[in-house]
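This section describes the prediction task in plain terms. A model, or a person checking by hand, is given the sequence of a single protein chain and must write out its three-dimensional structure as a string of tokens. No templates, partner chains or ligands are provided. The sample shown here is typical of the held-out split.
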Amino acid sequence: SNPPAGTLLAFIVASGLVFARTAFFDILDVQGDRIVGKETIPILLGTPRTFGLLKRILVSIPIVLATAGLFGFFKPAAYVLALCPLLLLAVMYRYQRGNSLPGFRTEFHVESILVLSGLAKPGLMAEGACRAGRVHCRAAIVRYYQHAGRKSAPH
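The expected answer:
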């Protein structure tokens, strides 16, 4: 059977955000990667072209979410998720303009955005998909505890 549209949409959004995060971190570490001979996207495409690619990906995610929302593929609460790629775009823009340096603070901002996206993702799926996911997770937990020799899962 095919996955629900909300699940597929969550996968696309998560993949886009993780790809952008990874490529941005590669931009932050491009000098070290060159020294050790690591072939990353910024080294292969160049930093300006990588920024262009990431900008297109991050701008397309809110467009996809808005379009899917118009067709009712997810709850309106999931519109918070559309902020995540825009926030990541803002962090990248600050770095590109020289207002932010590579280091702990920039990495913290990027990772915080991914945590925010993880908190917003349950709103993507319709109620039936969320209920099915909870039932599936509960069944997996029960199987784990049965395999481990315990009679029941904790409540």
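For orientation: The chain is about 70% helix and 0% strand.
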